[in-house]
Amino acid sequence: MSVVTTLLELHDRVLLTGDSVTEWGRDFSDPTSLGHGYAFVVAALAGARRPDLDLTFLNRGVGGDTAALLRARWADDGLALAPTVVSVMIGINDTWRRFDAGRATSTESYESDLRAVLDSARDELGARLVLIEPFLVPVSDDQHGWRTDLDPRIGVVRRLAAEYRAVLVPADGLFAAAAVRTSPEVWTADGVHPTPAGHGLLAQAWLDAVGLG
Q1: Taking CA 118 as the corner, what is the angle to CA 202 and CA 67, rounded to the nearest 5 degrees?
Q2: Do the Cβ atoms of 126 and 63 come closer than 8 Å?
Q3: Which are the contacts of 136, defined by CB distance < 8 A and separation ≥ 6?
Q4: pTM value?
Q5: Which secondary structure element, helix H or strand E, spans residue 188, and what is its range?
Q6: Rounded distance between C-alpha atoms, residue 168 and residue 146, angstroms
Q7: What's the rounded Cα separation, in Å, for the pair 73 and 70?
Q8: Which H or E element spans position 75?
Q9: CA 24, 37, 197, 93 torsion-angle sign
């Protein structure tokens, strides 16, 4: 029997981090809590499909996080956990805060903060990297205007994925294609936060990208 090639290896500690899409109901008082979103689905299906790998999954998503906030807590919520695989999805709040609170973050600052996290994960931990694109599925007319701010950030993620030889999960295009087949509300109620189906879509894309689809 041929062995399926996957990014994941025996006894890997896989850290999934980012904003509320990753957090999604995790219990902050329980360091093993995975929440009930895509992070939980990824861990459940990876464990079912490759029990021989004896994987450990950790969720350190924090609702409302921007790239700068993720960078600020990275020592405690990243390095201290000694993950061997680091998966990051961050950026939608950098865009959202511009439009709901008038707090603009430049694409350059976003890249600098994300790069700092990736440099640390690679250089201090030797971790393999997964980058998930921030995504938007507009459900209101005003959200179409967000693309001018978000698209350059997605471009940063794609470029850094190539530079750092990270696995890229192309979530933005994936959700756009899914919304065309049905309607945006099937996948996200407010354009940003996934429905259960949306979490399932994202989890399957993550598993496909790392070779466990």
Answers
A1: 70
A2: no
A3: 92, 95, 143, 146, 147, 150, 172, 175, 191, 192
A4: 0.96
A5: none
A6: 22
A7: 5
A8: helix 74-77
A9: positive
DSSP state, residue 10: T
For 12, counting Cβ atoms within 10 Å of its Cβ (0-12 exposed, 13-18 middle, 19+ buried), the class is buried
The answer for residues whose C-beta is within 8 angstroms of residue 38's C-beta and 6 or more apart is 21, 22, 24, 194, 199, 200, 202, 203, 206
- Cβ count within 10 A of residue 145: 10
pLDDT score of 5:
65
As a whole number of angstroms, the distance between CA 171 and CA 169 comes to 6
3-state secondary structure of 99: helix
Question: What is the C-alpha to C-alpha distance for residues 34 and 60, in angstroms, rounded to an integer?
Answer: 8
Q: Who contacts 123 (Cβ-Cβ below 8 Å, separation ≥6)?
A: none
> Which residues sit opposite 59 in a β-bridge?
16
Q: What's the token pair of residue 201? A: 């879509």
pLDDT tens for the chain, 213 residues long, are 334 568 999 999 999 999 999 999 999 999 999 999 999 999 999 999 999 999 999 999 999 999 999 999 999 999 999 999 999 999 999 999 999 999 999 999 999 999 999 999 999 999 999 999 999 999 999 999 999 999 999 999 999 999 999 999 999 999 999 999 999 999 999 999 999 999 999 999 999 999 999
Q: Are 15 and 86 in contact (CB under 8 A)?
A: yes
Copy the structure tokens of residue 152.
């350059």
